[in-house]
Amino acid sequence: MTQQSTAEKLDQSRLNSTQDLLSLTESIRGRRDEKRPVIIVCHGTGCLANGSPNVAEALRQAIKEAGIAAKVVPQIKTTGCHGFCSRGPLVIMQPAGIFYQRVQPDDAQEIIQATLVEGRPVERLLYEDTKTGERIIHDYEIPFYKHQQRIVLKNIGKIDPTDIYDTIGAGGYLALAKVLSRMSPADVVSAIETSGLRGRGGAGFPTGRKWASAVAASKKRPGPVYVVVNGDEGDPGAFMDRTVMEGDPHAVLEGLIIGAYAVGSNQGFMYVRAEYPLAIKHLNIAIEQARELGLLGKNILGSGFDFDVEIARGAGAFVCGESTALFTSIEGRAGEPRPKYIRSVEEGLWGRPTVLNNVETWANVPLIIERGADWYKNIGVPHSTGTKVFSLVGKIANVGLVEVPMGIPLNRLIEEIGGGTPGAGRFKAVQTGGPSGGCLPYELGDVPVDFDSLTKAGSMMGSGGMIVMDEHDCVVDVARYFLRFLEEESCGKCLPCRLGLKAMLEFLNRFARGEGSLEDLAELENLAKAVQDGSLCALGGSAPNPVLTTIRYFRDEYEAHIKEKRCPAGVCKDLISYIIDPEKCTGCGACARSCPQGCITGEKKKPHNLDPAQCIRCGMCLDSCKFSAVVVR
Amino acid sequence: MKEQAETIDEILDRYPGEPRYLISLLQDIQAEHGYISREAMTLVCGHTGVPLSRAWAASTFYKSFSVEPRGEHTIKVCLGTACHLKGGTRLAEGLERELGVKSGCTTKDLRFSLDTVNCLGACALAPVVVLDEEYLPNTNSKKVKQSIKRLDAE
């Protein structure tokens, strides 16, 4: 899972002034041949896992074999994630913008022959509109992309993230040049305040205000100030930050340098979770390249401003996404949070004023500087400005990453961009904000997706994971899933979280077995509120959200488990049984061979029988049956 | 044993002897040795000046550290939300039965370690299992079993 750099080497010495950078940008742009074909092969995690490096190699080979005249040899560029992960591996032919999906190495020859030599698209690799069945040639016409507003993600999928010159050619570091040549630190803070940018990590705290507090705190207590990137994206089902770090690492770095200048910091840290090796690699490359060019280190662009950054790798602990736990982890200890009687912006890393912002927040900073706070403020809705990147996952047709203006109605996001749930049904619920967020039902589909509206509905923005569920998903099971996750990830420091979550989980386990009573349900709600109020950090404080929202919106489903001992979605193991439909069973014997209990019997080519008394409901038969003859009741 | 101590010395040389490098050191040792032995931990403590109790606390707090030897191959079953909804939990249970160990444990012959992870961020591939470095996208119990058999035969 590594990405070979496709960067073309440029000889460039250190940039000593902002003018040097502008000249470099111009010269990179000038050297570009707009007509030269560029074949983009997505190398995001999803496409990599689906074998995109083999596709890139096959394309290289096919070009060689086709013997295209040396003058027009296409460039093959490997980029970060395009977001349309369920259609990978993706190949995009520029400058025409022809979008090929699910490309296999065997398709390479045809792509080169048809598209490059004959100048026509390969029909069968084009995207087929799920509703009209029409083939769509260009990416920007596909509904998944058409309704997005990609500003943070604008370069991802276009640039080679391992090549700083590609980033600079796309306008990278121009915001930094503007800041260093024309703006005072106070100007920068005030621009961020005016833009209305709020933290993308979950809580939505106004970024400008945070920066201003750090400046005030450092005036009171002179000494070092730190700026930190929170790249510990731990929410299951969320991968926005990873995509930004992997696909456009310089955007994060540029934002961080600008922030450091604004608050007077000379040392920054990027805390990245260990599960993201590719992100760590790309950030390391970016840091090194920026240092070589004099965009990082001593006397940046000859401005006299010194700043450097270090990567701190996480080691696998969800709680480390919490600010004080993250600091403790960077300091080299077990990442437990501490009480925030004093805010971490005043006393953070090593007790010094520290600005901690999420990856996406930092990546927004250069945009605001370059295009102006007023431009930014006009995107989105008044109290939630700008865009937000979401990962759409679960029972949704277009699994992937999207960027939309804040305030977009939930169902537009799911139906128009996400393509709705596969099959005929509508979505049943959406979990927003990961384990700390809440579960919203279909009926709330018109709720605007912004910080305040989601909080009002009992959920939260969180980091931007959107998990879509259909009627085959049980809300009791989902609540149980999140609680199990949080109970395991609780650091154990404070009692409400450590024991409260355990007790809450016990209630849910009972419901899932068809036990418990309505009094238990009331008791669970009480306990959930106590955990919310009594926990030390936000992890414990928000942990009951999935439970409380599922009870609020799906009480009847809880009651079905408790009163009727029935799981309407057919998920909770103790309340379901597997049977074999004799009409569909062909007697192939695959289920009998896979059954660990040996409880499926029958003659060859005749319908089989399943002995429910011995069945442990492991689902192996369901997985092994090719004829959908195993049914859950 | 002596050989191992030498490579640990090499790892120690990568970082200044300050407490803040404890986690980085443990990460490098974990990556190169597959686990953090008592000897290694003692050497790290000597280098960074951190008490053994604190190194132990960190080694057992973070999920990516192991204080016991790990298997030759690691099987990671993703239990992110998307994978959970698409049967990841069933997959993990099936593998527990197949290998005769619980998640987070290693088989007696030290061939396989079975882990569950909270999200690999590869949700389009759900349910996903990772064998060493190889992703098995949209997989099921049968396919995983076949891949494990293939690894075991190598």
Task: Explain the layout of strands and helices.
The complex is a heterodimer of chains A (633) and B (154).
Chain A: H1 18-31, E1 38-42, H2 45-49, H3 52-66, E2 75-79, E3 91-94, E4 98-100, H4 108-118, E5 127-128, E6 135-136, H5 143-146, H6 164-169, H7 174-182, H8 185-195, H9 207-220, E7 226-231, H10 240-247, H11 249-263, E8 267-272, H12 277-292, E9 308-313, H13 323-330, E10 354-358, H14 359-371, H15 373-377, E11 380-381, E12 384-385, E13 387-394, E14 400-405, E15 408-409, H16 410-417, E16 429-432, E17 438-441, E18 448-449, H17 451-456, E19 465-469, H18 475-489, H19 495-512, H20 518-534, H21 538-542, H22 545-553, H23 555-563, E20 578-580, H24 590-594, E21 600-601, E22 609-610, H25 620-624, E23 630-632
Parallel strand pairs in A: 1-2, 7-8, 7-10, 8-9, 13-19
Antiparallel strand pairs in A: 1-3, 3-4, 5-6, 11-12, 13-14, 15-18, 16-17, 16-19, 20-23, 21-22
Helix pairs in contact in A: 1-7, 3-4, 7-11, 7-14, 8-9, 8-11, 10-11, 10-12, 11-14, 18-19, 19-20, 22-23
Chain B: H1 2-12, H2 22-33, H3 38-48, H4 52-61, E1 73-78, H5 81-85, H6 88-99, E2 112-117, E3 129-131, E4 134-136, H7 141-153
Parallel strand pairs in B: 1-2
Antiparallel strand pairs in B: 1-3, 3-4
Helix pairs in contact in B: 1-3, 2-3
What features would you describe in this structure?
The complex is a heterodimer of chains A (633) and B (154). Chain A has 633 residues and is of the alpha/beta class. Chain A has 5 domains: 116 residues, Glutaredoxin (3-Layer(aba) Sandwich), CATH 3.40.30; 206 residues, NADH-ubiquinone oxidoreductase 51kDa subunit (Rossmann fold, 3-Layer(aba) Sandwich); 90 residues, Ubiquitin-like (UB roll) (Roll); 89 residues, de novo design (two linked rop proteins) (Up-down Bundle), CATH 1.20.1440; 56 residues, 2-Layer Sandwich (Alpha-Beta Plaits), CATH 3.30.70. In chain A, a hairpin with a 5-residue loop joins strand 13 and strand 14. The longest helix of chain A is centred in the last third of the chain and has 18 residues. Chain A is globular. The N terminus of chain A is likely disordered. Chain B is of the alpha+beta class and 154 residues long. Chain B folds into 2 domains: 60 residues; 81 residues, Glutaredoxin (3-Layer(aba) Sandwich). In chain B, 48% of the residues lie in helices and 12% in strands. In chain B, strands 2-1-3-4 form a 4-stranded mixed beta sheet, covered by helices on one side. Chain B is elongated and about 50 Å long. The mean pLDDT of chain B is 90. Chain A: It comes from uncultured Desulfobacterium sp. Chain A: InterPro entries: 4Fe4S_Fe-S-bd, 4Fe4S_Fe_S_CS, NADH-UbQ_OxRdtase_51kDa_CS, Nuo51_FMN-bd, Nuo51_FMN-bd_sf, Nuop51_4Fe4S-bd, Nuop51_4Fe4S-bd_sf, Thioredoxin-like_sf. Chain A: One of its GO terms (molecular function) is NADH dehydrogenase (ubiquinone) activity. Chain A: This is NADH-quinone oxidoreductase subunit F.
